[in-house]
Structure formats: C-alpha cells, structure tokens
Amino acid sequence: MKKFFSLGDSFMTTDCPDDGIISFSELYARRRNFTHVSLARPGATNFCIRLQIDCALDAQADYVVIGLTSSDRFDISLDPQNQLYQLSDVDYRNYRCAAEQHVTSNDVKVISDTFNNLIEKQHTDLLSDSTLAALKHYISYLHTPALQSQKDYYMICNGLECLIKANIPFVLIPGWMSQHNWNWVDRVWPSTAQTPYAMPYGPSNWETPIRYTSTHNPAWAHEEFCQILFDLTLDWA
Fold it and tell me: Is residue 237 part of a domain?
C-alpha cells in the first residue's frame, strides 16, 4: 500500500480517539486505500512541521499533504548542547492525536507549542517557571510575528524543495502563511475553496451533542475537505 503522510498543526491533526469526527486526511487515506501516517500535532510550530517533512523524506513517503501554521509559536530547547534535532526530540505526549502512535518522545529535547499552551502548562510540565517568565518577557519586548513568519517561510521553502528533489508529490495548504508567495509550488490548496484553517462552519463544539476535536472543524467540514483534496490529486493512485 502507498504511504500517505499528513503534516501540520491542529487543523491537520487526526484525533485519537476520533469521537466520531474523522479528519479529512484520514477520510482521504481510506478512500484511496493508502496507509495513513499522521504526523500533525496540535500546537506544532513551523519548525516542528519542517521536522515532520524530514521524517516523511526519511520514510520515503509516496504522497504528502502539508498545512502551515502561524508564527506566534515557540521552540524551546531543553538541551542547548544538542547539535541536531529531529522529530523524535519534540514533545508529542498528551496531545490526544494519532501522531503519538508514529512519533516516540522518550527523550524530549524540544518543546514546540503556542504561547498560551506553554504559559498554561498544557501538554507538558518540562518547562521551569523561570523559563516561562523569560518567554513572557520575550513576547512583550522582542518577538516580531512578521519577522518570524518570513524566517519560517524560508525554512519551509527548503523543506518543500527537498520533497521536490526527492520526487515526492505533495499538496500544500498555506494556512496561516498564505500571505507568502507559493506560486512556484505545483499543488496548492485553491484559494477559492474552503480551507480547514478558516473553520468555515464554526468550531465543532457548537454541534449537538458536543464532541471534542483538536481539528477545530465538524465532521461534515472534513467531508468537504476530503473531496477538495481528492479533486487535487486525481493522478495519485
């Protein structure tokens, strides 16, 4: 069976358990009869997503879909002496997503998450109070989202170029980085189509009965996203 990798943040996540809301990437894999390897994780940074690309490359993925995230997130090293980070170094525990089945975080060296999750100590207890206090000061006085977004863009471009060089077909969903130039990428999610990042139908917890999902979108939205992805990849088989 062909190996289909889905990469990104919460909007690209496959819940585990799914509680009846199945992500569009999982629906797509079932429809295509592909083996689905979900590496997407809630709160992931673009650096984490870049490491997900490396993982897909190493695994010789057949097809990849990638969603990009915002630049108001942070990567904090727990091992400053480490020379080279890989996806298994990133904390993937306690996010309630299928990616935890594919990424083993036995020796966490990097915390990658949103500012709010870090400050509220969600998902991880590995950051000291002094580190969190320093992060608050950095946010207040030094962090510039536009500058970080441009750095993220250059970093992600490198990852996409690696996929192209490896002849691995992929679909890019610009997500929170749609302001950048992606005209050079062959398959980009249509700007005229509904995108997972827009939450076109509102958060899924508006449903009755209430269902939890990290993907932020209700079940019927994922059906629509699956069809869009299918139409974009008619030549994938």
Answer: no
